Amino acid sequence: MLLTLTAFVALFVIVFLGLPIAFAMGLVGAVGYAIVINSKVAVAMIGQIAYDTVVTYEFSVLPLFYPVVTKLGYDPIWFGIVVVVAIEISLITPPIGLNVYMLKSIIPDVRATTIFRGVAPFIAADVVRLAVFVLAPAIVLFLPRLLT
Fold first, then answer.
1. What are phi and psi of 61, to 5 degrees?
2. Which terminus of the chain is more exposed, N or C, with fewer CB under 10 A?
3. Is the pTM of this model over 0.90?
4. Which pLDDT score is estimated for 15?
């Protein structure tokens, strides 16, 4: 809770100072996929150390990368889906695999290391899925484009 509150206050200061726009303007010249990959690395790093991963990312990192990604011409729906997939990966990877520890609390007889070994194939599959989504945005945007 304190981490979320701190991230919210920091975000307010960052937005008040206009840093997201300055950040976006400074990075527009960079290669598009480099920006997307850097945002995913930020998700992974926050997921490894933060207890409240989703809220922390939404309040601290997403406001910085969203203007950059939209300024580079990427679809916001695609970026949102890629962010959600990256957050899902961070919730099952060690050392702070929040979902793994939730499962451990439901099944106390099974060791956490056994559960982490059991989710390893799912981590690999999610990383492949994330790579496919980043490299082929048309797959992600197929259904949303049907609705418009």
1. -100, -40
2. C
3. no
4. 61
What is 5-45 written as a DSSP string? HHHHHHHHHHHHTTHHHHHHHHHTTS-HHHHHHHHHHHHHH
| Contact indicator for 89, 130 with CB cutoff of 8 Å | yes
Provide the pLDDT for residue 69. 80
Indicate if the alpha-carbon torsion angle 9, 15, 19, 21 is positive or negative: positive
Which among 117, 111, 110 is positioned nearest to 94, based on CA atoms? 117
For 10-127, strand residue ranges (E) read: none
The backbone region for 44, taken as left when phi is positive above 0, alpha when psi lies in -120 to 50, beta otherwise, is alpha
**What is the model's pLDDT at position 129?**
93
Strands (DSSP E) contained in the chain are none
11: confidence class by pLDDT, cuts 50, 70, 90: low
What was the pLDDT predicted at 42?
Answer: 63
Which amino acid is located at 20 in the chain?
Answer: P
